[in-house]
Write a structure and sequence with these properties.
The chain has a single domain, classed as Sandwich (Immunoglobulin-like), CATH 2.60.40. It has eight helices and nine strands. Strands 2-8-7-4-5 form a five-stranded mixed beta sheet, with helices on both faces. Strand 4 and strand 5 form a beta hairpin. It is globular and about 55 Å long.
């Protein structure tokens, strides 16, 4: 099992070629994160893991033993394509480790027909480091293609000389257009909560998360933000749900800009 996981991660870091076949080597059930209105049931994504495996991560053994919460939790669906808009995609994830570690972010375009992927964005410089809590990455210069599918991955670099031990998580998303009726309603409202709820109703997961988390000082979004984080926690292992919910809802939110 260990060798299979190492082999999978090595492939994921390069180009995710033949992703579905490789991900099956994990022999683990897919965790259903953020189960909302699943209108993609006829178009299942490749098997993905919205949480990192194991509990050790980059922390010491004694630190890790105090909590079994995954080291990385992506704020994203895993059993369906989370829908996003083409312009300025925003990604969010939770990091448990209390120390700061170098991170690596990768975005792949996924071909549903060939089951292959190509790297379109990678961030892995010395200034790209983790902080404990929720991290938000906005890519204002990144234009996604409507109708295309993408995979995104976050990895913590515990030991650059031993990459097989790095915790990582991956999720899939699909780029869609804003429904005309929603677009019309959005043009008539400047209320941030109403706008967020319009995106939520349209099942635009990533846009809803972006507004709920990026407007951290907006009191009217408090309940929506709590609802989203509790929804993510619900998708974790049953025995960890309450612990994960507490960790997510009490997290500091860190904004990243690239």
């Amino acid at each position: 099992m260990v060798n299979r996981k190492r082999s999978l991660q090595k492939c994921l870091k390069h180009n995710l070629t033949n992703y579905i076949a490789l991900s099956l080597l994990l022999l683990m059930p897919t965790t259903a994160l953020a189960n909302g209105n699943n209108n993609n049931s006829d178009d299942p994504p490749p098997q993905t893991r919205g949480t990192s495996g194991g509990s050790r991560g980059c922390e010491t053994e004694s630190e890790a033993s105090s909590s079994s919460i995954p080291n990385i939790i992506l704020l994203a669906p895993t059993q369906s394509y989370g829908q996003t808009l083409a312009n300025s995609p925003t990604f969010a994830w939770f990091v448990k480790d209390t120390s700061s570690w170098q991170m690596e972010f990768r975005l792949y375009e996924y071909n549903q027909a060939t089951k292959q992927s190509r790297l379109v964005k990678e961030i892995k410089d010395e200034n790209f480091k983790s902080s404990p809590g929720i991290m938000i990455l906005s890519l204002p210069s990144q234009e996604l293609l409507v109708g295309r599918r993408y995979l995104w991955q976050v990895e913590l670099v515990c030991d650059a000389n031993r990459p097989s031990g790095n915790p990582f998580a991956i999720a899939a998303m699909k780029v869609v257009l804003t429904p005309p009726e929603v677009k019309n309603q959005l043009s008539q409202s400047n209320d941030v909560l109403k706008v967020a709820n319009l995106y939520k109703k349209a099942d635009l997961w990533y846009k809803t998360v972006e507004i709920a988390l990026s407007s951290n000082n907006e009191p009217t979004l408090k309940e929506l933000r709590k609802s989203i984080l509790e929804q993510v926690a619900t998708g974790t292992q049953t025995e960890l749900r309450e612990q994960t919910k507490a960790a997510l809802t009490n997290s500091t939110i860190h904004q990243l800009q690239r």
